[in-house]
Design a protein that fits this description.
The complex is a heterodimer of chains A (about 260) and B (about 325).
Chain A: E1 17-28, E2 31-42, E3 46-50, H1 57-65, E4 72-77, E5 80-81, H2 87-93, E6 95-98, H3 110-122, H4 136-148, H5 164-177, E7 182-186, H6 194-207, E8 213-216, H7 220-226, E9 229-234, E10 237-242, H8 244-249, H9 251-258
Parallel strand pairs in A: 3-8, 3-9, 6-7, 7-8
Antiparallel strand pairs in A: 1-2, 1-4, 4-5, 9-10
Chain B: H1 2-32, H2 36-61, H3 69-89, H4 103-125, H5 131-149, E1 160-161, H6 176-199, H7 201-211, H8 213-218, H9 223-249, E2 251-252, H10 259-272, H11 279-297, H12 301-315, H13 319-325
Antiparallel strand pairs in B: 1-2
Helix pairs in contact in B: 1-2, 1-6, 2-6, 2-9, 2-10, 2-11, 3-4, 3-5, 3-9, 4-5, 4-9, 6-7, 7-9, 10-11, 10-13, 11-12
The chains are: A alpha/beta (about 260), B mainly alpha (about 325).
Chain lengths: ~260, ~325
Amino acid sequence: MTNSTVDTSNSTKLGSTVLKIENLTKRYGALTVSDSINCDLKQGEIHTLIGPNGAGKSTLVGQIAGWIKPDSGSITLNGTNITNMNVAKRSRLGLGRSFQVSCLAMELSAQRNVMLAVQARQGSSYRFWKPAASDQSLIDEADKILDRLHISEFKDTLASQLSHGKRRELEVACALALQPKVLLLDEPMAGLDPASTQGLINFLQNLKAEIPILLIEHDMDAVFQLSDRISVLVYGKLIFSGSPDQIKASPEVRKAYLGDD
Amino acid sequence: MLNSTHQKGFKEKALNLIILGLIFVTALVTYWLDQGYYVNLVSRVVIFAIAGVGLNLALGYGGMVSLGHAAFFGIGGYIAGISAMHFSENTSFIAGLDSTNQMLTIWLFVIIICALLALFIGLISLRTSGVYFIMITLSFAQMVYYFAISWPDYGGEDGLLISSRNQFLGNDTDNELVFFLICFTVLLLTVFLSSRIIRSRFGTALQVARMNDVRLATVGIRPYPIKLTAFVISAVITGIAGALFADLNRFVSPDMLSWQMSGEIIIFILLGGVGRLSGPILGATLFVLLETFIGGYTEHWKLFLGLVLLIVVLYANGGLMKMVVGEKQHD
């Protein structure tokens, strides 16, 4: 707690840095999975991380979200050093995320999943008396968000019975319910059909002005459509960072990632 | 689909009322027939049910399989027993406190002491999960058990006789029906309390902690303090049941603290239905019926208990509640 400094004076200005990762290093034995990574996310942008399998993207996401402790380096959210904070606290500070593998309360309906996030944002989970399921303040806000993602028709469906794609969207809905300052989306397009993918692309395109997004994605069409900046992670190192056009033109990136041909 | 969900919810509520009604009527009828023994038997069911409702909050809703709840059950019992002893000897309680034989005051002690102990045990145990959680809660309970055995002032291994039951305001607690009514009221209160807790915001968080604690942390709610709070509430309810149990039997012994006792409270829940409001009540009823009627023929009645448990777990994984009203519903 001692190393956290708060400086939110210019955090909402367009182009100001919201999330900052500095010299982040993580080793598993002899393997360096994050090799002094420097990376940031600015207000109003989508910054995409790409890289081949095993490049260390998931480990990086884990460190940003708080599940994995880095060996050194720091992560700053809106001027607050969050490197040593637990997962829940980071979420409360404004880090919203979706998972590579769906992570929902499967026995609850879509609506109840979003209502849980709304409840968490309201900071009111130590109320023991009033029934949560019929709490209008939770229902209204959850319905609005479900509507925004066009999944209202599934609101009474149990998360376990939703299709893979709908779960993805539901996760984004839960993240949005937190009214986050930053969205960390880990392969949100994986497993979506083309129509849903395009729908989600349009949605994120509109969302980025409101909430900047750090995106991990494999679908290159989506990446090039969405990204303002792209960074390439290979063997734990960020080898290149630039606009989509610069990425396409870079011989290094072609060699390491897109393939030589 | 939605309609059948509501119907099932209604069916479960109806069943809850029927079970409580049957217990009440059985006590009244047996009392009217002057069968004090059977009234006490119903009180035994009710007390076990309270203990089970308490544990169900941790085990059923929070997914914390505590094999140490006998510690709270027994401590509740010992507090009742020790108070009664000091009161009858007209000596002062530990630390010069005046002794009392008023149940309400005793229960207040039970609540405070069980809450503090559960806070301590929970703080350590909840750092683990699964099998490790089971073993740690078991070890804490065993410590309390051996502590009680080695404390001769309060009967040690032989236990402690309660010469006359503690009092509830001005009522004659030696009357079987009066005592039953006290237990039954406590059961109603705990069932009502836990039904509110389960459906509250806290209850939602608790159940998501069981289903998927990663999800809970991701929305910004730390699972650990949520589970700890539920563990403490759960322990307190089980502790009150213990205080009633000691008064019912006019006797408290280390048996109440043993790991077999912890196991039995788990069995009430497994038989009746994990995470179902009336599960522990049904389970405790079946347990006492087997104990009394098959136990009347053979001391090996637990063989039959084992068989019944096996059948329930294999063919109705979800207990009697699932057999009667079907799958659990989340509203």
